[in-house]
Protein 1
Amino acid sequence: MTDTATTAPTPAPDIRKGLAGVVVDTTAISKVNPETNSLLYRGYPVQELAAATRFEEVAYLLWHGELPDAAELAAFRAAERAGRALEPNVKAAIDLLPTTCHPMDVVRTAVSVIGASDPAADDASPEANLAKAERLFAALPAVVAYDQRRRRGLGVVPPRDDLDYSANFLYMAFGEVPDPVVVDAFDVSMILYAEHSFNASTFTARVITSTLSDLYSAVVGAIGALKGPLHGGANEAVMHVFDEIGSADRVVPWLDEALASKRKIMGFGHRVYKNGDSRVPTMKAALDTLIAYYDRPDVAELSDALEREFVARKGIHPNLDYPSGPAYHLIGFDTEMFTPLFVASRVTGWTAHVIEQAASNALIRPLSAYDGVDERHV
Ligand SMILES: CC(=O)SCCNC(=O)CCNC(=O)[C@H](O)C(C)(C)COP(=O)(O)OP(=O)(O)OC[C@H]1O[C@@H](n2cnc3c(N)ncnc32)[C@H](O)[C@@H]1OP(=O)(O)O
Ligand SMILES: O=C([O-])CC(=O)C(=O)O
């Protein structure tokens, strides 16, 4: 008998392209539930957090598992304020980068520089990782704000200690503190972007952590994953779509052509949510506030028309990037800065996952089914 006669045929491997539907681990950080269209951070509905807390409290919650009490919040805010200023070595590194590069390349480089200058970079204890996470949380707004300013030919605006995270972020970006209504809408966006279970960038961070690499490397990798337009890059891409369409009356012909050429419409669709993204109503309400504040009904008309038309034709709903993109535009951010804003928020979720992965680690290493040429010899 030959070997082939005695060997049972190998069953076809169960390949889940894109890991769709695959549960790879547990997490206590957030729960995305497409059946109930809900999202919980450490048990709290994200809508409640957006209505009743500030982003600093949510960051604390994601890392510690509980909302801070008054004393804990005061201490955390003081630490965040102490770490806000753009470090000279980080500014020097940013200044070396051409303004033609994408701002995601800048924020990725800045995290590398911050990591390279941290003597405890390779200490993976929960305490050391938490300190690194807090450092990045405090440092990233100045990186994003300065990058936008230098592209506009402007200099650094130093942080103000009397302002909370979001007000100070906007102050460093624009040199003035916007009205509370704008700060609140921005803070809501930071809360909504903070965490979303095993999305592509968070999974990247967990893969890197699983090799016992350091937190900064995990965040750098996560930034790379977030940059793509199928993930975080979509908030920027939504604005390009709005610019391309121009006005609500052009939605129908634009969509006819886009769908005929099999284009993906950015800001619509989601791997997990199939009946709408749990965060969209809250972000849409924030966008509506901004539309009213800036008196830009044209933005609402275009946004509503595209959503109405696309949902009617394809049954695919908007994701968080759809209302966030125009919201950041109205606040005054340049379009290519939108995904770095997402980074400033998601760094909280990424680092919470790094800490969780490190605490219960297994090397992440899936299998592949070889479909190349049969064995041959030189
Ligand atoms: C914060 C975030 O990261 S949210 C996601 C942001 N990304 C985007 O907005 C980019 C646009 N959206 C997409 O590309 C997709 O919806 C994704 C990548 C987010 C999820 O995609 P998947 O779960 O892999 O589904 P997939 O891309 O296979 O789509 C399934 C079907 O719906 C279609 N589809 C899904 N989204 C879109 C879209 N935005 N525009 C047009 N068609 C779409 C696909 O073409 C596909 O059709 P087919 O079965 O006829 O080929
Ligand atoms: O969960 C996902 O796949 C993408 C997403 O919405 C996010 O990361 O916020």
Note: Residues 126-151 form the longest helix (26 residues).
Protein 2
Amino acid sequence: MRIAALIVAAGRGTRAGGEIAKQWQKLAGARVIDHTLAAFSTHPQVARIVLVLHPDEMHRAAAFEAQGVIVVPGGRERADSVRLGLRACGDASHVLIHDAARPCVSAPVIDAVIAALKTSPAAAPGLPVTDALWRGEDGQVSGTEDRSHLFAAQTPQGFDLAKISAAHAAHDGPAADDVAVARAAGIPVAITPGSADNLKITHGADFARAARILERQMDIRTGNGFDVHAFGPGDHVTLCGVDIAHDQGLVGHSDADVGLHTITDAIYGALARGDIGQHFPPSDPQWKGARSDIFLRHAAGLVRDLGFTLTHVDCTLICEQPKIGPHAQAMREQVAAILELDADRVSVKATTSERLGFTGRGEGIACMATATLVKP
Ligand SMILES: Nc1ccn([C@@H]2O[C@H](COP(=O)(O)OP(=O)(O)OP(=O)(O)O)[C@@H](O)[C@H]2O)c(=O)n1
Ligand SMILES: C[C@](O)(CO)[C@H](O)COP(=O)(O)O
């Protein structure tokens, strides 16, 4: 089975409101569409992702294409967008068609659809209706419906690619979803377990519920770092990537940037991936005099490789001299640039140790840092 995920995101999101369509709005630290894509890009059985965007939003395509996603412009109705996306599914044998507006879809919901596709040409998640169902007229209950055979339809809806492509090509008129298109073509559809968490963001109030669900599902980690470098001969120190004139330098195998070393260690700590000495041994001559941004870039790369997002760094330098305040903003910007992070998410501050201890006696500079990582 070679599976493509087809994410439809070409709607206008008029019912949800807001200045931009719902799929571009922020939700639990990322955009709705990012959460949805992550659910499929991290799924081990999904080989290809096709994303359908509104024709007016195609300027956003390059950022997704850089991540290996195939982007195509959508159509007027959801079914038109699906039809256009199906053509880009290439050599896949099966396709999972999913609403971008369902960002809380979980791996078990996707797994169940894939498992059912082994024995059925189509499968989709459904949630049994649990509330009683009334008929109503003029504000009065006029009857009760039998709910024993009723399900709320969810996505991803999975299909044999050739069969659903033919069904869409032949379909004329409106369709509630792709299951309706499949059934109109005579394709049987198995029902798999849906989830109450797999809501479709439809109205503005749905954002708060989706955020609570995602935050519950997230892997949020903090790591701390601590480092010390002694003063020695020199005419400047390098702190958080910024060179500061000083009557002494810092001693170290690399450029002795105690700030960047500490932040690097905080990130390794959050990932539970050892420390800077393990990744860049001081015994290795290639790191002699190296600029420490190399170490921090390595840690940031590891964050991305392991599927995390770095959301915040807080760094405290501990020294009597040099004064950090005048350089703190430049340091924040330097760290943010190395980490490809907004400067608002980087804090660099300083304290003295009230002339106590080795920092108080001016023998060296110490640093503490905390890094926060999130994985959806
Ligand atoms: N022409 C369309 C219409 C909808 N969709 C996508 O289909 C999914 C489900 O549709 P819905 O919730 O109805 O989204 P919108 O059409 O954007 O919402 P609204 O009806 O409130 O405008 C969404 O991910 C939406 O982006 C699409 O790709 N192309
Ligand atoms: C496909 C779907 O998500 C199934 O529940 C849904 O039908 C699409 O959204 P809409 O609000 O019906 O357009």
Note: The mean pLDDT is 96.
Protein 3
Amino acid sequence: MTVELTVDKVSRAFGGVYAVRDVSLTVPAGELRAVIGPNGAGKSTLFALIGGQLAADTGTVALDGIRVERRPAHRRGIGVVFQTARVFHGMTAFENVMVGAHAVTRAGFLAAALRLPRHHRDERRIREKALTCLDRVGLADWADRPAEELPLGQQRSLQLARALCGEPRLLLLDEPASGLRAAEREHLATLITRLRTEGLTILLVEHDVAFVMRLADRITVLDLGRVIADGTPAEVRANPEVRTAYLGPETVRPSEPHPGVEGVAG
Ligand SMILES: Nc1ncnc2c1ncn2[C@@H]1O[C@H](COP(=O)(O)OP(=O)(O)OP(=O)(O)O)[C@@H](O)[C@H]1O
């Protein structure tokens, strides 16, 4: 089920200004790749171009060599957890995940409306799948709780469960650790690592550079819409261009560690 992601020379401009320009990257199957960069570097735009929430002006996106950039988001086989995503209020954790699972049943609306046997089979399958997804993120015991009552860390896990129910081959996580407390971050880090071990290819945008350095196999660094570095966490940490992008040219001295890029990473 693992899949390789290839982004080739993707660009997208807003009002004549490039948010993402000629970005190319390859994430081998089963890799956990982080994308970092200063504010406005183009990280969220790049994610939306890969996930299909935004159309690219030029360039291609392929999964295992099959181009998907013209497909709508729900037909790309990509699960996305957005920075701004919220759980659905007034629904239990289980029902929240059911919404994700419904997206992948094929029998669809007509079968449901006519109450065909196929619909009942599907419904049972969806319920089982939703429970499995909750279990995968450690929320099985919380299935019947109203989603909005879960602590923020568990709401994030719930969003992950919802994305997993769409049976993605690639997972895009946009700042999944933002706003979480230390213990919740730890839990999330363990969960993401486990999903990767289970065979998912994962792309992660995160401002918490320490979190990223610990988790990622490789890191791609964006600045002003372009890729300025790509390498292992150690390579990226040592890259002078990356330090300059984060701090600005005047403030960087080669011998000086940068708290964002190096200091926190130990
Ligand atoms: N819908 C839009 N309309 C106009 N400009 C946009 C739009 N989306 C993004 N931009 C611009 O594109 C550039 C890249 O934005 P983007 O949100 O992708 O960066 P980012 O790296 O995710 O930033 P942050 O870390 O602050 O979330 C910014 O200059 C932003 O103002």
Note: Residues 251-259, 262-266 have pLDDT under 50 and may be disordered.
Protein 4
Amino acid sequence: MAKSSKSGGFLGGLSESRKMEILGILVMAVGGLIGFSIVTYNPSDYTLIQSLSTDSLFALDQGPVLRIQNGLGVIGAYLAHFFVHLLFGYMSIIIPLIIIGYGWLIFRNRDISLMLWPTAYGIWGMVLLSTILGWVNTNYEWVESVWNGSAGFYIARVLQNITGIGSIIILSVLLLTTLLALLDRDLQHTVERVKDWIANVKQSYADWKERRRQKKEEKRKRKQQEAEQKEIEKQRQAEQQMREKSQTKEKQRAKPQTKTESEEEEPEPRSIDDIVEESQKRDRERMRQEKEEVKSLDQRPRADIEKKKIAEDEEDDVDISVYVGEGDEQAGEKELDKQNKDKAKEVPKVRYKFPTIDLLDSPPNEGNDVDLDEIKENKRIILDKLKRHNIEIRSINAIVGPTVTLYELDPAPDVKISKIESYANDLKMATAAKGLRIMAPIPGRSAVGIEVPNGSRETVFIKSVLNTKKFVESDFELPVAFGKTIENEVFMVDLTKMPHLLIAGATGSGKTVGINTIITCLLYKCHPDDLKFVMIDPKKIELSLFQKIEKHFLATLPGAEEPIITDTSAAKETLESLTKEMDERYDLLKDGMVRDIRAYNEKFDNGELDEEEGHRHLPYIVVLIDELADLMMTAGKDIEEPIARLAQLARAVGIHLVVATQRPSVNVVTGTIKANFPARIAYQVASKVDSRTILDTGGADQLIGRGDMLFTNGGGMTRIQNAFVSTEEVESITDFIGNQRGYNNKYELPVLEDETSSSGDIPDPLEDIDELFEAAAKVIVLHQQGSVSLLQRKLKIGYNRAGRIVDQLYNAGIVGPYQGSTARDVLVDDEEELEELLDDLEEFER
Ligand SMILES: Nc1ncnc2c1ncn2[C@@H]1O[C@H](COP(=O)(O)OP(=O)(O)OP(=O)(O)O)[C@@H](O)[C@H]1O
């Protein structure tokens, strides 16, 4: 009793944590000693200790005890016998390791439940390994029994008795799954990784074969060229010899008359004037022929000329000619992949494979079957209607597109073209067509156009658009092939030229598919080093598929919880951060003395700009907003302002906006937004008013949905059938990209200065003043620009430190308050004034 109270008193004087530390050390020591006894195990020790009497342990003569080889003496010999011989052989070392693990956690005062999984894995691994070794020992005696111990041996025996030779298969499978689970908790992921690895090996092998083939081909060509060269040389020499021979013969044969005869044989030397005149004659002839050819062609714009006339109908007095555009020339099946493979090699920084064309569905049939009966019927109705209103038509061309057929009417000279438009509703009723669009006149022509939807429409598959020479060979920076025009031509634009795009369309009209088309086009042509997306999706589902390409293509704020922004305040913050990125990029461009991102990247890639000074390769950033209305309703001006600012200025620094909305009302698509988005797409909208809001004219209300769209870039208007890209296709592309390793660090947008800490008043302005404060003040006054990024670059310091210094400069009255994404004003005009201010501050400090 007394003893225990005494010890309690001794321990009671220690803090709880110290007690734990002592306990931890004790536990670790026990583990260490057991481990020591196991590693110094010697089978002969046990026989020896059995022969020892208790007396010998206390005898001064240590003779027999000294023969024990275990490092922990007699106790060690017993312990090692128990763990190694009786239990799991040397594999039992795992037990003391686990004990040490527990000891460490106790010592560090951590939750010992952290050891639960390692304990379970450790014990399981120990039993499994010793059983496998026991199995090997039972059957082949390759290993000594000290490796498996009696328990391992026994379990292996029992297992073999029950399952025969299958026992080793069971053990192998258990070992494999344990290893996989240890290496990677997610087995599916592992399978994917193994598959990916195999694919990479295959790819490398194919690349190697291709390179070898190319080398062989080059060698063969070189040899062939050499042989040809030799042959030519031989011929030349032979001719030379012949000429020399014949000349000498000639001279010998008729010396007196040489002059006249040789003059007759050799062609008359031609003067320069003769040659010029001849070539002019040839040019005149060629131009005459070309003019003839052009005359024989239709005199309409280029797109129209390529249409193929497939039928003519002269049943009544008005001719109708039916044309179907031939479409763009298809590229070879693997041409895009090959080109992309080469492109990927140009960026050795990251191993990246472009999505391959076989991830896309092939169109089931080539082209659209033209329904001539339908065309004749429509012609009859149109003519009939117009005749009743005394409008005479001389001829009709029908151009059959994937979704609609355009009837181009050539009215008699005395017909007032605008009159035809007023009969639109009449015509609509007569043709029973859902969306009938009348162009009176077709811009720039004296013809009237009536677009009537086809009875059966053709789906324009994305593959049939991407796998064309036009797309594959395009050298646009951000090529987007929306789909096909009425002439069946691929309609392609460079997003960098637009430079921003506003999309509107009622729900279900094909906006999301349209955005997916844009992303798909870009993914098939742009390397992740050159392109990042910022995806804002308040509807939360439309863009979620692209989460998988996060590691490659998405740019977010540092520490952002979701790669796709769905929440309004995060959207606002991201847009503001983008304006900051824009400002920083402008600073970089200014510093690099270039005018746009293309020239900047060229200069940087050529090593003309110093990374140390903050220069970096700038990827294009495409900002996608799927549903502007949701953002505008909740945040209004806060969202509108950064969008307008980006739209006004971001073009040169490679930031492009694609903004979509299903509610093209004036409070969503405001004047400010509209003014900054010259390129617009309208899918089907509910009313003419909506159409006017987005296109400044009617027409979108007459579209027929499912990707039927009108595109305008400020000038004319083009009707396009949007290419269809299915969810499954998007999934395969994103899986293909997402399963690759990607970048170690995501592309992060700049952090916004915390308004509260930046503009709020800090009690003591000179508290913890930074060592670089003075230097920073000088830089800022010299450049007359109060920006954090300037300090980062000039002083080579991190963002946070630069931000802190700017706060201190603000408190010292050197720069003005925080102004969102623009740099702060500098309140000190020159160095002299700065010196005075700094002197005052020093005095104040004292
Ligand atoms: N280019 C296209 N070709 C063929 N079908 C299309 C095309 N675009 C859209 N569709 C069809 O129209 C449906 C609706 O398209 P989508 O989801 O893109 O519309 P949306 O305008 O985004 O609608 P919401 O605003 O409700 O999301 C698609 O599921 C698809 O079946």
Note: The longest helix spans residues 187-253.
